[in-house]
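Recap from last week: sequence in, structure out.
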Amino acid sequence: MRRLALILSLLCVTVLGAASVSALDEGQRAPEIGLRTPDGQTIRMADLRGKVVVVDFWASWCAPCREELPVLQRLHEQYASRGVVVVGVGIDRNERDFRAFKERMGLTFPVVHDGAHQVAGRYEPPRMPSTFLIDRNGVVRHVHEGYRASNARELEQQIQTLLR
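Predicted C-alpha cells:
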C-alpha cells in the first residue's frame, strides 16, 4: 500500500510539475479546451461565452476527485438550466481508465480526455482536483485547489454569485 501511495504521489508530481508556482490566476482569460467528448462534441470556450463555466481537472486515481465529482454532477443538474456548464477534464494517460471512471461516477456533464495534458498544460492545475470558475465573459474568477467536503457550499455560492 505504501508503495502504491508513493507511485501515485510521484505520478502527481510528474503530471503537475511545478504548476502550483505558475497556475492560471484569477482574472486571466480562460484558455481553450478544444478537445472532444466521448460522444464527439468539441468543447470550445468561444461556444460557452455567455455561460458560467466550471472546468474541473480530475483523474481516476485521485481520491478527492471521487468525492468532488458527485457534487459537480449535482451542480450540473441543478444549474444547467440557468446557464451553468460543467466541463470535466480527465487527465488519465490511459483512455480506458478515463472512460471507466467516467461511467462509474455516472457523469452526465461534458467530459474530455486530456491524456496528453494539452489542456492541463494551458490551465496548469495546481493539484488534483482543481476547479476553475469562469464568468460569462470567459474570465477565471475562482480557482479551487484540491477538494474537501466543506468546499461544496463555497463553490455553489460562487456559482450563484456569477449567475447574478
